[in-house]
Amino acid sequence: MDMNEIKEIFFQECEEGLAELETGLLALNDGDDDPETVNAVFRAVHSIKGGAGAFALDDLVSFAHVFETTLDCVRSKQLEATRDVVKVLLKSADVLADLTNAARDGGSVDPARCQALVADLEALANGEIPASDDAVADEPAAEAESAPADEPAPEAQAEGEDDFKPIPVQFDDLEEKGDDFEPVPFSFDDFGTDQAPSANIFRIVFKPKPDLYLKGNETLLLLRELDQLGTLDVACDWSELPAIDELDPEGAYLTWDATLTTSEDEDAVRSVFEFAEWDCELTIAAAGEEAETAEDAAPQPDVEPETDESQPDTEQEDVSASKEEEQAEPVEKLELPNVIDLQQAAGANRQQAAESAAAPKAQATASASGAGSTIRVELGRIDRLINLVGELVINQAMLAQSVTESATSGSSAVTMGLEDLQQLTREIQDSVMAIRAQPVKPIFQRMSRTVREAAEMVGKNVRLVTEGEATEVDKTVIDKLSEPLTHMIRNAVDHGLESPQDREAAGKPAEGIVKLSAKHRSGRIVLEIADDGAGINREKVRQKAIDRGLISAEATLSDEEIDNMIFHPGFSTAEQLSDISGRGVGMDVVKRSIQALGGRVGITSTPGKGSVFTMSLPLTLAVLDGMVVSVGEQTLVVPLTSIIETLKPETEHIHGFGASGQLISIRDSFKPLIDVGQILNFSNMPTDPLAGVALLVDSEDGGQSALLVDAIQGQRQVVIKSLEANYANVPGIAAATILGDGQVALIVDVEAVVSASRSGALKSEMSLAAVG
Amino acid sequence: MHQTSKNLAEGARELIAFRIGEQEFCVDIMSVREIRGWTPATALPHSPGYVLGVINLRGAVLPIVDLSSRLGMNESDPSARHVIIVAQVHQKVVGLLVDAVSDILTVTDDNIQPTPEVSSELDRSFAKGVLAIEGRMICLIELESIFPEGESEAA
């Protein structure tokens, strides 16, 4: 596994982390005050920072660091997660996502935006927010490790400035005295020393390697986390610190010798160093056994720069011994040189602190066990599998057909075997498709950012409510969903919702709500984008349509027809063109791209109450249920979803209309009768309606048409094959498939055929990409 | 095939020669994926006359081009004796309908003569050169110019 692969994994994890981050923050925004939520958010940022450090992604690390610092304040309840605070945090999450993307794909993030947020975050960490009345900035011992070996992290200075007590370090002295220097005891008096009652005592010798700092870990945070477990005495051994002119600024020279009195067991202590243990030399020993060796080791812990987990022999024995005696009786507190007293108000949040310290471990266990139940698979492999299963389905159908044709129907064993095979094939196909099914949640999460940004741009106050995030749909659909959704969400924010003033004038809360929901309905996924805005101004839409010559001034249109005008190309009702929508390529492009996916989109609107856009899409783009029909000598497949009913036309139902047009009356309503063979140029002779079959289909504008074909052969599930892969987009044809006899059959693009029958010519589909 | 390519002299390359009517043509062997017999194709609506339709090539949908018609000669009447050369052109795979495959030629660039100045439907842009092999005249055609990228989009 080379570096790039590892990096790729890191970015995948980042994506998951960012998703988790956003979920958590949104939960906080909705008033969730579960400490575990805050912890999850904190962990997400922390692991991104840690990973980014390993790849020397400095921008990412430094931003994540500031972010993490602020989150830590929230976690320790020094900062209340008010709406305003969460807003800054959400913005930070966006920037973090941008930075991650920039790190992966190149490119850069607006430094001014970063700087502004860094400033905001630091302000929050320092308690400079009117919303929180507590003084927040009592960050304990923030710079306790700001010895020369510390990684250059200037922003870290900000967090603890108020408390930071400079420690005079006389480098000249050090140089002269060498190993014999006198310990310099110092302590932070602010914090009382209230000893925890009966507890385990651990001696922890922690010697970071330079890599630890490179990966974004920080001794301070580790020690602080230890401190939350109980009462901590820390001594710093700087005997290895070289003279300043020999000092490598990125080196690590300090050894920390800590004594922890805690009610937690050794595992909890170890879990603190979970992300760091590969990059340090770490000895954790229960003090009961430690006492005797402490004499030798404590004054100058002789930790040699070997690989991790390798300690001087005596200590190693101690570790193994102490593991058996985890519950060792507490012994007297060790006196250690260079004591930094980190005893915080330890009793205060003991329970919560223990929880938060245990949390990373819990997560690690979860991900470890999770690794057993899920695996990452390259999408290409699944696609290959799906293709193969597609072949299997075709082959099975071919086999079935040839068995039927060879008239061995007497042999029931063959027929039964075939039936079993058919069932198995179908099951395999379903299971394989399920592999690729994904919840829409990630897309929905992306939309919350879209809403935030769009709302900010147009100066509205908008909240996104999502529903049915767990609804699963094939990956092929997911990938294509985001673009039309983004368009529609922006549209809802920009056009759907009124300005806060108008809303208040109308007696609504200033904050508008955009609701995004997903659900399964009859083998399709239905997405709804609802806003609680003013609804469509039908008078304005109508006037505009007349102005643009889209309809005549006398035309009487139903409300539904007027609403659907907004899907007309070149239609935009925004009085002022804004940055985010209103170029007039909005809704018609959305409609076309959804149609290209085999979907439909519609709108319902109630004046004063808002509008609801409804999209319905197939669950997969890999297979579809189709009706196999004959047209001339051709076999075509018509997607079953677009067929409402089939009927055999009778003489009295067929009415000529104009020169060549024909209408069919179905229960006294007249529908255009479309000769598919002629539209697709398969036959020169018009099909005799009385000899053929009419398929009543729905078209997107709400109207219905009847497609005339020669005969219906049957109904079956077909595997969609792209024509574009080796050829090109064929107007009137959505895709191809392979039938049981091995022949290619074309899948009819019903919408294109219907619109061609109106305009008289087939045009290629316009896609979102083509318009921009 | 790798073995033979290695044994080839510097600058030499292999071509597949095939027949359309009375004339012989050849294409670079590296662009040929396989050669197979004719199977009836499914016609595509509104396609150019030289596109006979699509066939199923082990699950992939493969367009079939009547090369004779594409080169401006007579339209073929495909039969079981016709042959389809499956070739890769740009990123796409197409089937070329020809009368028969005749030979594999090993030539160097020196063997290839420039296309003579003639006014013919067989445009000079299709023909990269001509070869004289054992008294036969074989025209080297370039698939990339027969199927330029993006042309199919217009079709």
TrEMBL record, chain A:
Residues 418-621 form the Histidine kinase domain. Residues 134-165, 290-372 are annotated as: Disordered. This is Chemotaxis protein CheA. Pfam families: CheW, H-kinase_dim, HATPase_c, Hpt. InterPro entries: Bact_Chemotaxis_CheA (IPR051315), CheA-like_dim (IPR004105), CheA-like_homodim_sf (IPR037006), CheW-like_dom_sf (IPR036061), CheW-lke_dom (IPR002545), HATPase_C_sf (IPR036890), HATPase_dom (IPR003594), His_kinase_dom (IPR005467). Involved in the transmission of sensory signals from the chemoreceptors to the flagellar motors. CheA is autophosphorylated; it can transfer its phosphate group to either CheB or CheY. Keywords: ATP-binding, Chemotaxis, Kinase, Nucleotide-binding, Phosphoprotein, Transferase, Two-component regulatory system. The lineage of its organism: Bacteria, Pseudomonadati, Pseudomonadota, Alphaproteobacteria, Hyphomicrobiales. Residues 303-318 have a biased composition (Acidic residues). It comes from the Bacteria. The modification Phosphohistidine is found at residue 46.
TrEMBL record, chain B:
It comes from the Bacteria. CDD domains: CheW (cd00732). Residues 12-152 form the CheW-like domain. Pfam families: CheW. InterPro entries: CheW (IPR039315), CheW-like_dom_sf (IPR036061), CheW-lke_dom (IPR002545). PANTHER family: CHEMOTAXIS PROTEIN CHEW (PTHR22617:SF23), CHEMOTAXIS SENSOR HISTIDINE KINASE-RELATED (PTHR22617). This is Chemotaxis protein CheW. It comes from Hoeflea poritis.
